[in-house]
Design goal:
Length: about 425
């Protein structure tokens, strides 16, 4: 297994799919080589991340952290991995069988290539499960980007007319989602938990009995992903040229451009400075006095993220942690994820959890009446997140804590530090 080659393929299929799919289609291979040289490794990424999240980190709600026992987590991880490998092949069989219906040519090796490389975005984004709440949105973005990759790849690998690729993609995705649900049910039945997710495909308009009339709304999620892919392709070319030049400054700038393009921000973004973001945190929250304050800005691969956090406490034992985060270079992902996030509400015996939109902002709240613990989060300007959590009398105190932040001023900074390509 050539890890260097696998990493190069992942990079190419994610950043330059339009030029990489013809290369993929022309490569001689077979089922065994595809599994051993690519699928077996990349498909393991979300499975391993899921085990780390479920059994090592755990899921927290209402002040309680729940972890799947290590032994059961390992069983679930292995089962999910095996089923994932099987699912890839089953979906490839379906893609192959559908080829003549949409004017394509049947070829099982090409069908397996199509599914494996299109699902790369979903597998890589699956690592996001480790990140609470926002990680699920990252996974959703990865899933939709995989749909876009499938749409781009079918005309090359399965030789279908480009005008029929939309219909071919839609039918294949619907079947894959149903099969994915079945896999989720099987794994959930074994480890004793159930977490099913679904994604809607919007912006594709298909008419004609064989899907021969297809258009994509440029303002839809899929249309935005298409534009994101084009920007990433151009940025990747600049990065390659910078690497050949040996100029470290040019390489750093090019990496920032590429990550900005991949995140949908259409340019590199400098996150707010620690002192600037820390200034949003008040000295007190009613009777709760500030007991701690910290801020930091981190960067990696040309992307920056800033976060400031403060702790507040009162003599009666109540405490709140208030955080302000600037997603910086990932603000494009945040924007897309916020636009695609489903509105939902879950009721429990002692409380609730819900996600919804209010005044154009994505809001997440949860509360437990028994433990008196809750969390209230708001995504502001599709770039910043403000979150309050802790033990208080009611969820209203957490809402007031978030409201103590000047959200209007924070939103006015949504374009701060953006350097257009």
């Amino acid at each position: 297994m050539d890890f260097g080659k696998i990493i190069e393929r992942i990079k190419a299929i994610l950043t330059t799919p339009r030029t990489e799919w013809p290369v993929v289609a022309a490569e001689p291979t077979n089922v065994q080589r595809l599994y051993a040289g690519y699928i077996a490794l990349v498909a393991a990424l979300p499975v391993i991340a899921g085990f780390i999240k479920g059994s090592l980190i755990g899921s927290s709600a209402f002040g309680i952290t729940v972890r799947t026992p290590i032994g059961m987590g390992l069983v679930g991880m292995l089962l999910q991995y095996v089923l994932a490998l099987v699912l890839v092949y089953v979906v490839a069989l379906i893609v192959n069988a559908l080829a003549p219906t949409f004017g394509g040519e049947k070829d099982m090796n090409q069908a397996l290539k199509t599914v494996a490389y299109a699902w790369t975005a979903s597998w890589v984004a699956g690592i996001g499960v480790i990140v609470p709440w926002l990680g699920l949105l990252i996974m959703l973005v990865g899933g939709v980007y995989s749909i876009y990759l499938l749409y781009l790849g079918l005309p090359h690998t399965m030789k279908c007319p480009p005008e029929k690729a939309g219909g071919y993609t839609a039918v294949s995705v619907i079947i894959a989602i149903v099969l994915g649900w079945i896999v989720g049910l099987i794994v959930a039945g074994v480890i004793g938990t159930a977490a099913l997710t679904g994604a809607a495909v919007g912006g594709v308009h298909i008419t004609g009995s064989n899907g021969d009339n297809v258009s994509i709304d440029s303002n839809s999620a899929l249309g935005k992903l298409a534009a994101m892919g084009e920007r990433a392709e151009q940025a990747s070319k600049e990065l390659e040229a910078a690497q050949k030049s040996g100029d470290s400054a040019a390489q750093s700038a090019a990496m920032g451009k590429m990550m900005g393009a991949m995140s949908g921000s259409n340019g590199s973004v400098e996150a707010l400075a620690p002192d600037q973001i820390k200034a949003f945190l008040p000295e007190s929250l009613g009777s709760l006095k500030r007991t701690s304050l910290s801020a930091q800005r981190n960067s990696a691969m040309g992307m920056q993220i800033s976060q400031a956090s403060a702790g507040y406490a009162a003599d009666n034992g109540q405490h709140i942690t208030l955080e302000v985060s600037d997603t910086g270079g990932a603000k494009g992902f945040m924007s897309l994820a916020a636009a695609m996030a489903p509105e939902e509400e879950k009721q429990t015996e002692h409380g609730y959890e819900k996600t919804y939109s209010a005044d154009g902002n994505l809001v997440h709240e949860e509360w437990d009446t028994q433990s008196k613990y809750g969390e209230y989060s708001v995504v502001v300007g599709k770039r910043f997140t403000v979150k309050a959590n802790g033990n208080v009398d009611s969820i209203e105190q957490l809402k007031q804590a978030v409201a103590s932040i000047d959200l209007a001023k924070l939103e006015s900074l949504k374009d701060a530090g953006v350097k257009a390509n």
